[in-house]
Amino acid sequence: MARNPLPRPTAAELDLLRLLWRLGPSTVKQVHEARLRERPDATYATVLRLLQVMHGKGLLRRDESQRSHVYAAAQARGPLQTRLLDELIHKAFAGSGKDLVMAALRGGRVSDAEREEIQRFLEETRDE
User: Fold this and answer.
1) CA-to-CA separations, 6 to 93, 114, 118, 119, in angstroms, rounded
2) For residues 31 and 51, is the Cβ–Cβ distance under 8 A?
3) Secondary structure of residue 100 in the 3-state scheme
4) Taking the model in full, what pTM does it have?
5) 7 φ, ψ to 5°?
6) Strands (DSSP E) along 4-127, which ranges?
7) Inter-CA distances, 73 with 22, 70, 78, 105, Å
8) pLDDT by residue (tens digit) across 31-71?
9) Which residues are within 8 A (CB) of 24 and not within 5 positions of it... i.e. 6 or more apart?
10) 27: which strand partners?
11) Of 21, 35, 59, 99, which has fewest CB within 10 angstroms of its CB?
């Protein structure tokens, strides 16, 4: 039997997933309040609707045992990020992880502190 592919979150859905990964299981009110700190124009209705859509897609779990439903990410951050990264490497970089890293390093998206951390990681893993 074929397994259903895991849903791919939109940019807006990823924003809410990042909030939920940071907050942990949360009510719509809690997610909305956290979202307002990042986007003051975010409405409660929009956050509610997006959480409902995400639940329908299988991106979120919803605990309905209390009056205020509690939403939580259905997948941990690491595995989802790895899957999205694999898709990006395959689609945009012809399967080359090196090309992805080089593009990030050349594109000015990596700070000096991040470069130092990457260098330490490479040195630590060189002998493994």
Assistant:
1) 22, 31, 30, 34
2) yes
3) helix
4) 0.74
5) -65, 145
6) 26-27, 60-63, 70-73
7) 10, 10, 12, 31
8) 999 999 999 999 999 999 999 999 999 999 999 998 899 99
9) 72
10) 70
11) 99
